[in-house]
Amino acid sequence: MIELVRAADCIACDKCVDVCPTSVFDRTDSGIPVIARQSDCQTCFMCEAYCPADALYVAPRVTPLAPDEEIPEDQVGRYRREIGWGRGRRPGSLVAIGPELPRAQPPRRG
Ligand code: SF4
Ligand code: SF4
Description:
The structure is a single chain. By secondary structure, the protein is low in regular secondary structure. 15% of the residues lie in helices and 10% in strands. The chain is built from 3 helices and 4 strands, in the order E-H-E-E-H-E-H. Strand 2 (25-26) and strand 3 form a beta hairpin. The model has no long low-confidence stretch (mean pLDDT 94). It binds iron/sulfur cluster (2 copies). Residues 5, 10-16, 33, 51-53, 55-56 line the site of one iron/sulfur cluster. Residues 5, 10-16, 33, 51-53, 55-56 line the site of one iron/sulfur cluster (SF4). Keywords: 4Fe-4S, Electron transport, Iron, Iron-sulfur, Metal-binding, Repeat, Transport. InterPro entries: 4Fe4S_Fe-S-bd, 4Fe4S_Fe_S_CS, Fe-S_Ferredoxin. GO terms for molecular function: 4 iron, 4 sulfur cluster binding; metal ion binding.
């Protein structure tokens, strides 16, 4: 569930507002979006993936953090880093781990 827009890093591009499928964010006059409808978040990570400033944190769970739970600094923008989106990063698809897939013969032509 979306937990944080880190204002200090946000560049006010509104990409998170545009990609969120459930309109969780509201635009503001300052340019820094606010989390207006947290309970509508479906934890899809799209906003975090698209944020060019690594300014968002989506917790990998479907309920909000408890009031006394702190967000570890190194978790902010981590999803985007892990999937390798962003300039100079290695695409996550190149380092993904999965089962060995059978190599089929290419289909015959003609
Ligand atoms: S995780 Fe998905 S649903 Fe939740 S705020 Fe981000 S884009 Fe919207
Ligand atoms: S995508 Fe990131 S940088 Fe752009 S407005 Fe949203 S939080 Fe700010």
